[in-house]
């Protein structure tokens, strides 16, 4: 198992728009493509409260490549994402990290 941690750094005031997009659009595409989330988190305390951090569980990097590429190239997703940013961009930058659990991890 591999866990991908993604951190979305939003433009000021745009975190609510990103959360709305996940709830009303993105999660439906995750379901369509079999993308399994571990969890979603906003920052309570830290350098910025304009971030959304979430984790996705993958069986392998090959599975990630297949499913993520299919999701990212879905024309309906591209159209809907663009519509949410028609007036103003939502995300300024994205960081992603791939993690593997240790032998003593509760999540394996």
UniProtKB/TrEMBL annotation:
- Gene3D superfamilies to which the protein is assigned, alphabetical: 3.30.70.100
Matching entries from InterPro entries are given as: Dimeric_a/b-barrel, NIPSNAP
Give every NIPSNAP domain span.
3-105
Q: Which domain of life is it from?
A: Bacteria
* Protein's recorded name: NIPSNAP family protein
Organism taxonomic ancestry: Bacteria, Pseudomonadati, Pseudomonadota, Betaproteobacteria, Burkholderiales
């Amino acid at each position: 198992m591999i866990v991908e941690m993604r951190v979305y750094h939003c433009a000021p005031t745009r975190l609510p728009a990103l959360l709305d997009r996940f709830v009303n659009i993105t999660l439906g595409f995750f379901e369509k493509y079999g993308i399994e989330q571990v969890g979603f988190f906003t920052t309570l305390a830290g350098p910025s409260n304009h971030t959304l951090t979430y984790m996705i569980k993958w069986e392998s990097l090959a599975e990630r490549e297949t499913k993520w590429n299919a999701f990212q190239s879905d024309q309906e997703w591209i159209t809907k994402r663009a519509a949410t940013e028609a007036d103003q961009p939502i995300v300024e930058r994205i960081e992603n990290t791939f993690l593997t659990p240790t032998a003593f991890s509760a999540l394996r």
